[in-house]
Design a protein that fits this description.
four-stranded mixed sheet; five-stranded mixed sheet; globular; 462 residues; D-Maltodextrin-Binding Protein, domain 2
């Protein structure tokens, strides 16, 4: 395994993101712009210094509306660990994709904003920016100049404008993890850090023959993140796109190969919302998931697991970097407290706390990641290995879909259900689901995002 070197984690993942974002040239306002390699913003104070937090206020707390940390255990960690030291009472309200977008827009329309802070992924924010919902946080960013945010991330937060619509919050990605008991079944000559999907299938098959069980697991449950696997891993790895090649001959090959892989996937995967539990029970020996959803297993018994990048396909080693940010709605209540909360959440100590407890990595240069828990260190090692992969192919989270994000994810999941579970004809399903996908793109007028080439007007399914 490649070991994490002395480079800060924000720079490590920042390099991953900048590679993907460099593909987004010619972007229109509100979409991802072309970026330069990340460098930390100038520090106004010595490294490790933090901005002064105003004293807490005696009001009833502020509403923190978030698309992140929605699973019950993560939400409770946010409330009871991360936000415990906040300088005010915080009502943390994580939401699913649809309500996450709909609630702030409905409040805006009604002229009554009750949300003080909005937290979300980069791709969540265009809908709010286009609606004129988000305030300019440039003055707040100036107060946080000691943080050392990567310039790449600050540029992203401008959403193609000269205003700072969100402040970087945290970053993550998805990796694979395996119980060391599964290593004996690796195909001869296979490098676990440079697997192909063909080798993963061979490995899962051999493991089934050796154990008598189907021990490859995927989070296909109702709250699982399997849609990110189709969007950021399989499709880019086989077609070099997330959208354009949806119904291409390469996509037909991809689904054909995945149907073969599925023969060796634990059938209980359709109930798995995260892979930590089945890894810990031994139901699964090999798994793919978000780093935050693998953390519990890796922390419980770090000596029992190895971590590594997802496999590569004919077009490269597709993967999905994740950047989250913090915004303030125009006309939102408790503006001073909202700024205090963002100040607190971007404090290096809080950033380290999030890495230790939730597995999302810091976005500030001065956060101390020298003493990560062993499980989080395993994840950092896998990310370092991914960064060094010559065939790495970044795929951004969907950008500009707004409230249609849930419908978008459903297209991929329905495609899986029809092709793999129901056994329908692959090309027929892709043609029909591709039409649904195109209707969403046309309705929201979403331009293409990496790894797809930039588009004039809505992205086109081919």
């Amino acid at each position: 395994m490649n070991k994490l070197n002395s480079r800060p984690l924000w720079a490590l993942l920042g390099t991953i993101l900048v590679v993907s974002l460099a593909l987004a040239g010619c972007a229109a306002p509100g979409t991802v712009p072309t970026l330069t390699p990340p460098t930390a913003a100038p520090a106004a104070q010595p490294a490790g210094a933090t901005a002064t937090l105003p004293p807490p206020t005696p009001n009833g707390g502020i509403i923190f509306h978030s698309s992140q940390f929605a699973p019950v255990n993560e939400a409770e960690t946010m409330r009871n660990v991360i936000l415990k030291g906040a300088p005010m009472l915080v009502d943390f309200q994580p939401q699913a994709t649809g309500p996450y977008v709909d609630i702030p827009l409905a409040q805006q329309k009604a002229g009554k904003i009750t949300i003080a802070v909005i937290g979300g992924q980069h791709g969540d924010f265009p809908a709010f920016v286009n609606a004129g919902l988000l305030d300019d946080l440039t003055p707040l960013l100036e107060k946080l100049s000691d943080r050392g945010f990567p310039e790449t991330y600050l540029t992203l937060g401008k959403m193609g404008t000269d205003k700072q619509y969100y402040i970087p919050w945290a970053q993550a990605t998805y990796i694979m993890a395996a119980n060391k008991d599964a290593l004996q079944y690796l195909p001869e000559g296979a490098d676990i850090n440079a697997l192909t999907y063909e080798q993963l299938t061979e490995w899962a098959k051999a493991a089934q023959e050796g154990t008598g069980q189907r021990v490859l697991g995927l989070p296909v449950g109702p709250q699982g993140l399997i849609h990110r696997f189709w969007q950021g891993y399989l499709y880019p790895s086989y077609t070099g796109t997330q959208v354009g090649g949806f119904k291409s001959p390469e996509a037909v090959k991809m689904w054909t190969d995945f149907k073969e892989l599925w023969k060796y996937v634990n059938p209980a995967s359709t109930n798995y919302n995260n892979m930590s539990e089945p890894l810990q029970t031994g139901e699964v020996l090999i798994a793919w998931d978000h780093i935050a959803r693998l953390k519990a297993a890796l922390e419980a018994n770090p000596d029992q697991y190895v971590t590594f990048p997802a496999p590569a396909g004919p077009a490269g080693r597709g993967y999905m970097p994740v950047l989250t940010g913090l915004a303030i709605p125009v006309g939102g209540p408790n503006r001073a407290e909202a700024e205090q909360l963002i100040t607190y959440l971007t404090d290096p100590k809080t950033q380290t706390l999030v890495a230790q407890n939730l597995g999302f990595f810091p976005v500030v240069a001065s956060a101390d990641t020298s003493d990560l828990p062993p499980g989080v260190k395993l994840e950092a090692d896998a990310i370092a290995t991914l960064q060094g992969s010559a065939d790495a192919l970044p795929a951004l989270l969907p950008v500009g879909l707004g409230a249609k994000g849930g419908d978008w994810n459903k297209v991929y999941n329905d495609t899986f259900q029809r092709i793999v579970i129901k056994g329908e004809d692959i090309q027929t399903v892709l043609n029909e689901q591709g039409a649904v996908m195109q209707s969403i793109l046309d309705e929201v007028k979403a331009a293409c995002w990496p790894p797809d080439a930039p588009s004039e007007g809505p992205c086109q399914v081919k």
